[in-house]
Amino acid sequence: MSSPSIDIELDSLQNAVSMALEYAKSLGTSGAEVAISKQQGLSVSTRMKEVETVEFNKDGALGITLFRDGCKGSSSTSDLSPEAIKQAVKAADGIARFTSADPYNGLADEALMATSFPELDLYHPEDISPEELARISILAEEAALNTDPRVQTSDGASANAHTSIKVYGNSHGFLHGSCSSRYSLSCVAIGEIDGGMQRDYDYTVARKYSELLAPDLIGTKAAEKTAGRLGARKIATTELPILFSPEIATGLMGHLVGAISGGSIYRKSSFLLDAVGKQVFPDWFNIDEQPHLVGALASSAYDSEGVATQERKIIDNGHLATYLLTSYSAKKLGLTNTGHAGGIYNWTLSSTGQTFDQLVKEMGTGLIITEVMGQGVNGVTGDYSRGAAGFYVENGVILYPVEEITIAGNLKDMYRNIVAVASDRDLRSSIRTGGILMDKMKIAGS
């Protein structure tokens, strides 16, 4: 979807990128890349059904990186006038002349540049007023405060509407721009019983404003999650199966992203060194990357270096199929660039077919983990130790909430010992997964 005004702005930004590239070429550089991003957004936060803040932002900048025989220089400017762009190019060139050469610096290979640009349906602009965002925030809070008598306080709600325009070009002749939109609503509820307090939240996010979940659903869910945590207790130190909720399972897979990123591999700071082709997960486990899903939150036709994205297996029947490589890390490792400059694209985990509720029953006795805390993950060794909260389950039935525990293991063992992945996936991030049931983990409690 586009409009005449957006098309005009895209043309203007592409002209600015072309100007910068032409000027860089006239200076005799061996290569250059230029990116412009412009964002516009409106955010409204409320607390206890009163508007607390209204924020409007509109910013953008042009960034240029150029190369001189392995030497690299970068600069940026928010002024897109021809003279300011020339000054930014000169500044980058001046830096390049005084930096040390690195043989792995440079643009991504020309043959890898994207040449087709599928319609991904990422841009749905809406003229949304602060009053409208305040309205849905307050509706979410009202629902939260009317759900359970033990939940009488809101820690706030926030509604956001953002659009962005990005243009990227390089001296291979690649030049392309795209637009995207993102809307979100969140609500945090606070509950109290017998002097003990708990908080929890829920949120919704979408490319289209009309596809956000209803405010009352978000508020109600936040309050229900909060109420469910009231009366939490510790448990004795033990070993039990663990069922990670979808939100926490997403983070668990996020550690995989870091471990197989090219930078971690060439620095030898990953617990998955030399793991391509080796079994890392159970035989039935797969992760498919799908960068061209229409309307998804992490879809893109190319990465931040212009390299075409493509569907690929990340985990293939339990085996690691690839590292995630940018042009620099690929050259450093002597491997092929995989188009992952800037992130990952819609990882979808395979499922064993059960819903989350069915996995609770299948687990029998164990813990559902709904929150983790702290930074106790060692990316070099894979050691995992984090504070956690959730629910104790016995005979497939949730008995009571649990807090102030620590769960521990090693990611290598944890990944291999995944028992099941639920079919009801959380689609609110770049990693699309249901809950993950893990074989026994160590639990430190009272």
Brief descriptors of the model:
446 residues, alpha+beta, PmbA/TldD fold, five-stranded mixed beta barrel, 9 helices, 17 strands
Outline the structure in words:
The chain contains nine helices and 17 strands. The protein has 446 residues and is α+β, with helices and mostly antiparallel strands. A six-stranded antiparallel beta sheet has the order 3-2-1-4-5-6. A five-stranded mixed barrel has the order 7-12-13-14-17. Strands 10-9-8-11-16 form a five-stranded mixed beta sheet, with helices on one face. It folds into two domains: 225 residues, PmbA/TldD fold (2-Layer Sandwich), CATH 3.30.2290.10; 207 residues, no CATH class. The protein is globular and about 70 Å long.
Number of structurally distinct domains: 2
Mean pLDDT: 96
Count of distinct strands: 17
Helical fraction equals: 10-25%
CATH architecture of the largest domain: 2-Layer Sandwich
Broad shape: globular
What is the strand content? Answer: 35-45%
CATH topology of the largest domain: PmbA/TldD fold
Largest sheet properties = 6 strands, antiparallel
Major sheet: order of its strands? 3-2-1-4-5-6
Class by SSE composition: alpha+beta
